[in-house]
């Protein structure tokens, strides 16, 4: 009898792959490599392992898409897909309306993407409010690194368990662990 696949474990193993490696796996399975980020690439592979089918792409509705590549950096302007930039002008704008503690965050991008997918693009003021709320929440309850950030999670755990480790030892252990888990993931995906 074939052992049951632990899809949470598979997702964890896939998080050890680089984006290019995930795309190579998708290509090897004749699946689309189109995705917004690493998390979606992993979701596509896990879905395939569960169902044997390709996961349909998430589509950003037209109402969330920009008609031009520029937008005015004003609190009441909508942040539309295709106009949000991680650049100096945007950073300075947010520092002006949020404060000098503003910095670009992955959770901010994730929040924007969810709004776009729902067809509800926010204003810069709404984004600033959400960013500040998340910032305050993180002061009380520090957020764990995202699952797809395997190296950060691995490093934090390894250093906690081995406080006197060198950077070289950390990298060597990461490389070993990474290769073992990637091999396990590939065997499941390719049903070997």
Describe this protein with a few key phrases.
mainly alpha; 3 domains; 8 helices; globular
Describe the structure.
The protein is mostly helical and 192 residues long. It has three domains: 62 residues; 79 residues, no CATH class; 26 residues, no CATH class. The protein is built from eight helices and no strands. It is globular, with a radius of gyration of 20 Å. The protein starts with 6 loop residues before the first helix and ends with a helix.
Short description:
By secondary structure, the chain is an all-alpha fold.
| End-to-end gap | 14 Å
Written as H for each helix and E for each strand, in order along the chain, the element string is: HHHHHHHH
Strand content: under 5%
Q: Please tell me the total number of domains.
A: 3
Largest sheet: none
Uncertain residue ranges = none
Query: In percent, how helical is the residue content?
Result: 55-70%
Q: Assembly type of the shown chains?
A: single chain
Mean of all residue-level pLDDT scores: 90
Shape: globular
Class by alpha and beta content:
mainly alpha
Number of helices: 8
How many beta-strand segments?
0
What's the layout of helices and strands?
Layout: H1 7-14, H2 19-28, H3 38-51, H4 88-97, H5 106-117, H6 124-140, H7 150-161, H8 167-189
Helix pairs in contact: 1-3, 1-8, 2-3, 5-6
């Amino acid at each position: 009898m074939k052992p049951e696949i632990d899809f949470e474990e598979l997702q964890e193993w896939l998080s050890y792959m680089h984006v290019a490696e995930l795309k190579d796996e998708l290509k090897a399975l004749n699946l689309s490599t189109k995705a917004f980020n690493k998390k979606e690439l992993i979701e596509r592979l896990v879905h395939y392992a569960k169902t044997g089918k390709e996961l349909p792409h998430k589509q950003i509705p037209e109402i969330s898409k920009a008609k031009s590549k520029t937008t005015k950096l004003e609190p009441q302007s909508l942040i539309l897909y295709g106009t949000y930039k991680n650049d100096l002008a945007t950073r300075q704008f947010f520092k002006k309306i949020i404060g000098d503690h503003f910095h670009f965050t992955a959770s901010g991008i994730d929040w924007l993407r969810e709004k776009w997918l729902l067809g509800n693009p926010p204003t810069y003021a709404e984004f600033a409010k959400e960013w500040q709320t998340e910032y305050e929440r993180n002061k009380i309850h520090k957020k764990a690194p995202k699952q797809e950030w395997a190296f950060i999670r691995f490093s934090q755990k390894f250093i906690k368990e081995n406080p006197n480790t060198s950077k070289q030892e950390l990298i060597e252990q990461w490389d070993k662990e990474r290769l073992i888990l990637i091999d396990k993931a590939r065997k499941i995906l390719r049903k070997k």
